[in-house]
Amino acid sequence: MSESRQRPPFKGPRWIITLVVLVTVVVITAFIYPPRNSVACYMFSGPGCPLYQQFLFVPTRELTDTEAAAHVVMNEIMNLPQSKIFNPKIAFMFLTPGTLPFEPLWEMFLRGHENKYSIYVHASKKSPVHTSSYFAGRDIHSHKVAWGQISMVDAERRLLAHALVDPDNQHFVLLSDSCVPLFDFNYVYNHLIFANLSFIDCFEDPGPHGNGRYSQHMLPEVEKKDFRKGSQWFSMKRRHAIVVMADSLYYTKFKLYCRPNMEGRNCYADEHYFPTLFNMIDPDGIANWSVTHVDWSEGKWHPKLYNARDITPHLIRKIKSIQRAYHVTSDLKKVTTVKPCLWKGEQRPCYLFARKFNPETLDRLMYLFPNYTSSV
């Protein structure tokens, strides 16, 4: 019988082994560091792909059931694909006690751009008498609003709810009866519609008029480290407006525990709800300053009121030339933070609107309007 032959040791070409190793390395690398928007992304779905770049809450503690449900809803809203609107519009939402004294000025601002904006008016005390056809029929169902109360936030949410009905409305601007535009319509439109941020004022104030208003009753959902302050005059993208309408968890905390004369504190929900909400859910999606200028230099409870004698080309140019946002803490240190107003990386004027203007300034503003809005 012939002896069984044993297989000789493998002496194949080394290039085959080398090739297998190289392919393995490439596959692993493509999974971990795929080129963005490449075929590798869709083949391997690695963490460097857009799929993994989606907005996502990263909780730092175990969430309550209510929080977990709220975060799921907000995640879904924030990750909705961007709608492609043929004719995006700005929703100008006026929060006023009654008649809007600057309707003629706003008509000058809006004229000729009828397909690029919508108007909504919330009159909290009495039905306004409109002097401009641009505002006629734009009143929404309104309720009384008390300064410093949650009813102010309710009115803002009510305006958002009505404005969101129109799918073409892509940016939402809250304005008061004493607000005026600083630039022409085209500049304002392009600045807001093509911005990649919502202009919501937001900063941390450790003083008595900031974190001193915080209540421990807001725990665990709202921690003191997340509590923020800012101007109520916001300008926000549609996605953020939908988040506001979907929120009940954080809104309820502010409704119950942020109000005047509570536990010896005066907490004003309209100054804290939006800044805190967006600081928690999308801090990188807001500018941290408002596009509406207000002069607090007098150090009073209410901002400076501009009268007719104050209205000069110099005043308007001065406001329009501001390119840095300032925040000052309310503690004894009076720490001032300064931030450049950047629009897609380009430094620009911070403010598109200004308040607080006395009705007597109307004629003077209308006289200056063609000149002061024509230049940046």
Automatic annotation (TrEMBL):
Organism: Cardamine amara subsp. amara
Keyword set, alphabetical order: Glycoprotein, Glycosyltransferase, Membrane, Transferase, Transmembrane, Transmembrane helix
Keyword Oxidoreductase: no
Membrane topology listed for this record: Single-pass type II membrane protein
Upper taxonomic lineage: Eukaryota, Viridiplantae, Streptophyta, Embryophyta, Tracheophyta
Coiled coil: none
Pfam families: Branch
GO CC annotation: membrane
Name of the protein in its database record: Glycosyltransferase BC10
Entry's localization field: Membrane
